[in-house]
Every structure is written in C-alpha cells, then in structure tokens.
Amino acid sequence: LYFEHRETVQDLQNTLLTQILPNVVDEHGLDKAARERAEEWLHDDLSIFRTLKRHKFTKAFALESLRSILIWRLSHLKAQDPDAFPPSPLHVLPPLATDILRRPILILRLANLANLQRDPREHILRTVEGLRINLHNINASSPPESPLTHPVLQYILLVDMENASMRNFVRLNLDLLTWYIHEVSPRYPGMFGTVFVINFSWTQSGIWTVIRLALPESVQYRIFFPSKETLHECIRPSSLPRASLPSLDEEETSGASPSLTDASGDNTAGRSARRKIASLAHVSPRSQYNPFYGYPIGPRPYSLLPASLPYLRHGRRRKRDLIRTLATLWWEKWRSRVSWTVSFLFVSFCVRWWWRQRRNSMFLIRGEPH
C-alpha cells in the first residue's frame, strides 16, 4: 500500500516544501532553527503517508490536514533540552525485539504513571515525537543494497497492568486522556497498531471501564486481552522481557529495555508474516483475562475483525450470571466446611437412627411374655 501511493506522497512533500512552508515561514516569522525542524518533519515520508491514509488517500484533504499539522507543530514543539524531562514510563524494546510483522514493541507500565509530573502534556508530546523520529530512523537505517520490503509504519503497544490500581489512573485523569485523543493522536495518525493488555486481573476491570468511555470505537477494536499462548502467537517469547511476563521459561531478552532516546538503531529486515489473533470467545467468565469478570464474553457483534474487543455476549450484565458467579465463589470458599458439616450431619443422623432402632428392638424383646 505504501509503494502504491508513493508518488502521491512525493507530490505532497514537494508541494509542502516549495509552496506551503515558505508561506508559513513568512506568515509566522520563523527563524532558521524552526524552519529546519519543519523541513525534517516534511522529509518524513512515512508521516506524510499515514496522514494520507487517514484521509482515505484523498490528496486535497491530506494536504489541508498536513498544513494544519505543520502550523500546530511549530507552535507546540519547541526546541528544548531532552534532559529537562523525567524518565518516561513508556519504553522501547531493543531493535531486534519485534512482533511477527516486524513492528517495534513498546511497553507502558500503568503503575509508573504516578511518577509523572503534575501536568505531563509537554512530556507526552516529546515522547510521541521521539517515537516518530525512532520509526523514521528505523526505516532510514536499512542499507541501500537491501532496503526494507515493507516499511515499518507502526508500533505494537503492550500495556502492563501489574500493580496498577485506580489510584494510578486517577493520577492520569480522563481529561488528559481526552486531550491526547483529540489533540495529539490526529497529529500522529496510525503510529500505534495492536494494543495488548497484559497482566490484567478482574480486580482492575474498573480501570478498563473508565478508559473505555473515553476511547473511540476505532481504537477499541485494536485492544486485546490475550492469554500467554495468544501473545506468543504474535510476539516471540524471546522478544518479551520476563519482568512483564514472569511465567516465561525462556531466557530474557539480552540487555535492559532502553529508554526512548536509546531506542534508535539498525533493524534487521525479513519477510513479514500474517497471523490472526485468536478470538477470546471461549474465555471463561471467571478467567483472569476476562475484563468483565463473572460475565460471559465474546467478539463484538457484527465485527468483521478476526478477533475484536471482548464484548458482553448478551449485551448487558445479567443478574443470573451475577448470582451464578457469587454462588460459585461462595462454594469455592466454603466447600470444604460445607462438605464436612454435611458429612457430620449425615453420620449423626445414621447413628441416631441406628440407636433408635436398637433401643426399640430391646424394648420389644423385654416386653415379650416368657
């Protein structure tokens, strides 16, 4: 798809560099450094392609959107010292750690969001901009004699829920999430592909319920709650750090997970593979991977995807499912005591019945005439 529309991307770049950018420079009185930053972004053909794809390859709409993004970048992304920002909770795994589609892997530990500054908007902007530059460097680092047959257009995101609580999410409130969806995501379209939520427990379902309210439906379709086996179908076990999946028996990926600034480097190309993500239709209602613990789930109705977001199978939380779950949990907790109590009562009843029968027999024997 990228090579099919490559000429359109080059035409857009040429128009932006020769016509749009000079007008924007004169209109806003930009200095040399700001112009160089703008030119660097305009030479990123993958960003141009993602914007073109977002507008369904309509050149006029894409050009208008790119112009507005250019002006937005000049007003929101200023040159600053990267050391001025605290470490990011978002980590990029080493270049060789990819999924089966050769996409780089990001890990977001939700519990670390509490370490962010009070208003981390600028920090988030810098992080996403660094991810864009990293994708550009991955594709530019391939040698001319063996270029990438399929450019790397997206990341795959692993959201680690271990030790996460509602308190961590309150720290990153809904206003900040809404701001990212409406302000940042349209300026960086299509950078994130599949999102896997790992180490998820039913006790954290409240966090997912709150987050789901702010996510558009197009994003919800890309979020999955995989089992370990399903995750290994999409990502090789050697590419996953044991810190995120402690149950892995394989060796840990060599080297610690670097920060965003250390993630750029060579990316070994290979044939891309295509696999479907296993459906969650058969996940048990009381499985730890079920975001609606106690209620049966399945793929979203009428979805054309091979595996869509987990969805309440009956469209609502039924009382009968709640009663069944509570009864099952009660039985699992008190089963041994109930069994011993019933056994004791049964034995007591048998002994009492035997004793009564024996006593009645003795009375009958004593009452017989000699």
Any overview of this molecule?
- Mean pLDDT is 75; it is low at 246-281 and 301-308.
- The chain is of the alpha/beta class and 370 residues long.
- α1 (6-28) packs antiparallel against α2, α1 packs across α4 (59-76) and α3 (45-54) crosses α4.
- The strands form 2 sheets. The protein has a 5-stranded mixed β-sheet with strand order 1-2-3-4-5, with no helix packed on it. A two-stranded antiparallel sheet has the order 6-7.
- Helices cover 46% and strands 7% of the residues.
- It starts with 5 loop residues before the first helix and ends with a helix.
- The protein has 3 domains: 6-76, Helicase, Ruva Protein, domain 3 (Orthogonal Bundle), CATH 1.10.8; 85-317, CRAL-TRIO lipid binding domain (Phosphatidylinositol Transfer Protein Sec14p, 3-Layer(aba) Sandwich); 319-370.
- The protein is built from 11 helices and 7 strands.
- Residues 254-269 have a biased composition (Polar residues).
- Keywords: Membrane, Transmembrane, Transmembrane helix.
- InterPro entries: CRAL-TRIO_dom (IPR001251), CRAL-TRIO_dom_sf (IPR036865), PITP/CRAL-TRIO (IPR052432).
- Residues 242-269 are annotated as: Disordered.
- The chain crosses the membrane at residues 338-355.
- Strands of the largest sheet, in order across it? 1-2-3-4-5
Which whole number gives the mean pLDDT? 75
Radius of gyration based on Cα positions: 30 Å
| Continuous helix count | 11
**What is the H/E order?**
HHHHEEHEHHEHHEHEEH
Q: Which fold does the CATH topology of the largest domain refer to?
A: Phosphatidylinositol Transfer Protein Sec14p
Protein name: CRAL-TRIO domain-containing protein
Region (Disordered): 242-269
Domain CRAL-TRIO: 78-252
Biased composition (Polar residues): 254-269
